[in-house]
Amino acid sequence: MIVDAHHHLWDLSVRDQDWITGPGLAPLRRDFTLGDLRPEARAAGVGRTVLVQTVTVPEETPEFLALADRHELIGGVVGWTDLTRPDIAGELARLRALPGGRHLKGVRHQVQAEPDPEWLLRPDVRRGLTAVADAGLVYDLVVRPHQLPACVRAAAEHPGLTFVLDHLGKPPVASGATEPWAGAVRALAALPNTVCKLSGLVTEADPASWTVGDLRPYADVVLDAFGPHRLMFGSDWPVCTLAASYGEVVAVAAGLTAGLSEPERAAVFRTTATRVYDL
C-alpha cells in the first residue's frame, strides 16, 4: 500500500480558492472532491492519504477533519490555524476535540506568500511553533528557496518539533539551476528533526515539456541529504494535474527512486509518512 502524504481537495461552491488566478491555473478552477480522487488513488495503489490545507481560513480545517472522520482513505490532516494568535495552544486543543480531531496531524501556513523571508523567526510565530510541538503535531513548510535559511534556523531553535519540507522547497526545476537551493536543503537536512516530501516537482518544471531527467537532479539531492527514511511521497493532486496525471506522478516517483532497495522504497512510499504523521 502506498501512502500519499500530500494532496488537496476543494469545493468552489463552499469557498473560493483565491490563489487560482490567471490562465496558467485555469484548469484548477473547478471542484476537486474525494469522489474524484478515490478512483485515481485506487488505480495507483494508494490506500491512505494526508489531506493538506489550501487556504488560510479557520473554517477549512474543521471541515477536513470531519471529512477524514467519515472516509478511511484520509488518514491524516495537515490543517491551518493562525500561529500568531495569543491562544494558539487552546485553539489546537479545540481542533483536536472536534469530530475527526484525532486526524489532525500537523499545521501549515502559506509561508511562501509572506513578503518577509524570515517570517518563521518572528517572536509570535516562534511561540506558535512551540505550541505546535507541545501539542504533539508536526509543522509543514511550504516555502520558496530564498526562505530556506529561515527554515534552518527555525528547525534548529525547535528541536522537539518535526518540520516537513513540502515540495522539496520548490527548486527552480524549469531553469535547471540547483544552487543556492541545494546548499540550503542540505543545511536543513543536517538537522535530525526535518523530513522532506518528494512532491511538487512536475509543476516546478516546464509543464508542457518536462522529462524525468529534468527532475532527477533535484530528487537526487534530497535522497542524498535526507535519506529515504526521512523522505515521503506526495502527489500534490490536483495541482499536479497542470503537468501530469495522478498515475503519472506516482510512476515518476517510482522511477526517481528505482535505485533504492525494497526497504528504502517502502520508506519513501509508506513507512516514513506513517511514522511522521502517526497514521
UniProtKB/TrEMBL annotation:
Residues 3-279 form the Amidohydrolase-related domain. InterPro entries: Amidohydro-rel (IPR006680), Metal_Hydrolase (IPR032466), Metallo-dep_Lactonases (IPR052350). It comes from the Bacteria. Transmembrane segments: none annotated. It holds the Pfam family Amidohydro_2. PANTHER family: AMIDOHYDROLASE (PTHR43569), AMIDOHYDROLASE-RELATED DOMAIN-CONTAINING PROTEIN (PTHR43569:SF2). Belongs to the metallo-dependent hydrolases superfamily. This is Amidohydrolase.
